Amino acid sequence: MHMKFLAVHPGPLMYTKIYLRLEPLGLELVAQAVRRAGHEVRMIDLQVETHLDYFTLVEEWRPDVVAFACNYLANVPEIVDLAKLTKQQLPSSFIVVGGHSASFVAHEFLRHGAGAIDCVLKGEGESAIAQLLLAVQHDRRAAIKVPGAVTQDGDGPPPRFVETLDDLRPARDLLRHRRKYFIGVLDPCASIEFTRGCPWDCSFCSAWTFYGRSYRPVSPDAVVDDLTRIAEPGIFIVDDVAFIQAKHGFDIGEAIARKGIRKQYYLETRGDVLLRNKEVFQFWKTLGLEYMFLGIEAIDEEGLKMHRKRISLGKNFEALEFARTLGITVAINLIADPDWDRKRFEVVRQWCLEIPEIVTISVNTPYPGTETWHTESRKVTTRDYRLYDIQHAVLPTAMPLEEFYTELVNTQQILNKKHLGWAALKSTATIAASHLLHGQTNFVKMLWKFNSVYNPNLQLADHQRPVTYEMDLPPPHQDAVNSKILYIHSAGGRQGRAIDDATEQFVSETSMGTSL
Ligand code: B12
Ligand code: SF4
Predict the structure, then answer these.
(1) CA angle, 51 as apex, 47 and 56 as ends, to 5°?
(2) Of the ranges 105-114, 336-345, 443-452, which one carries the lowest mean pLDDT score?
């Protein structure tokens, strides 16, 4: 007997309101795994549809299972409230939540749900969802036997990896508003995955703790097969660090060239990977690479060390120099620390003005699932999930909070002055005109939105909102990594902390199925 499965992506975040809006690729994979198991599947993305649309769909279609994707902490309260209202509307429905953040705060989710959330499915969703649905059909209490499941009865076995990333294609056809997804001038834009996981271990990041420091490539054939089904001209490559393995990058590129596929690409990578694999990036420029994001994070050695980026400042600057020679748009990110004073912001502002790149600035935020969540000795000033979006200060600020936000937004304004509004339209006038002609308004609308989204008074007011759901604090644990409490998928083999040259060589040269 088949069931009706409704996959739901929550609403937009502060980030999404200005820079980009992307299709929920992970949820599409989960949806496809469910469809392959013979169930009827629908999907709704609340980044582009309303809560009213959602409740209307629930009322009319009456799904047996509602599955929410939660990659971001800031979405937790919204999902808990939606789950509660859904359970009232459809008491017999089974409600499950999955994704990065859901995996790291699984027990809290169940507690906030007060009975409305039946299960949190940790880890890679496509590996266990069909098994979970079998349990839901026959004996709901058996859900606890599914790998990765956390239910009101306790924790199931640890989550398992999918056997291969090659045999499942995302259910892209289930989204009703595909033209709403964009990043900058790549409008409309689809997303694709070339590899999964990251072998580095930056202290502020949870990519490696989620995937147990494994790193797995998708085969070039599978990538090309997926690409040929994508209608959009823009492609966001979702890999945390693109082209760590030069051979894999070349193989995919050559397969794309052979097929004659022409797209425009966006990717994210590290400075050291860029320098080591220059030819791959040069090759991809010829294939249509348009945008690159480099996680620079700090412009001083001390900052890089604090985030454990395992790269020197000199290398990062060298990487920037090289990126400029590629003739593509380069964006970088810097992490502002709440202890920054006015002088520090001023230094960063000057630096941002001197370089041609787009600079985004985030706020150092200990995030559940990261090492800093356990080791950050400063006490967090709030446990409101909605403020954990790396745009708000959740650690004590050295300056009064109001001044911190004023300085932060003034620094972020550099981006506005350099790259948004009229400045950007001048340099991208032809692109913008062509988008408008094709009815694509996402990019052009975004150019004028900065001031209405980034505003110190609004940031400050966000701290005053009543808080219904508060997250738990972690027990202080200075040795969180070695004790393995951080991992969702268990760490596959790599025990020590150091990434030495030999390991890097290994990561870059092994072509398939690396699991460290
Ligand atoms: C695209 C993206 C974004 C987009 C969001 C677009 C969108 N609509 O989702 C933007 C740019 C807005 C964004 C912002 C941020 N992001 Co982000 N983002 C990504 C990125 C690059 C790709 C996501 C993706 O499509 N992955 C591929 C799919 C296949 O994987 P997936 O979504 O994780 O889905 C799998 C599982 O999570 C699970 N799953 C997912 N949904 C569901 C649902 C159910 C029901 C089930 C059972 C399972 C399940 O199964 C899926 C298949 O295996 C990831 C990195 C990555 N490579 O995953 C980071 C990542 C998810 N982001 C992250 C972070 C930290 C952020 C930021 C906080 C800061 C930042 N680093 O930019 C902000 C959040 C802003 C805010 N206001 O809160 C972290 C993880 C967050 C966490 N919870 O621990 C990641 C892993 C990056 C990283 N290295 O730190 N991000
Ligand atoms: S910040 Fe980038 S390099 Fe560092 S662990 Fe996360 S994904 Fe890997």
Answers:
(1) 125
(2) 443-452
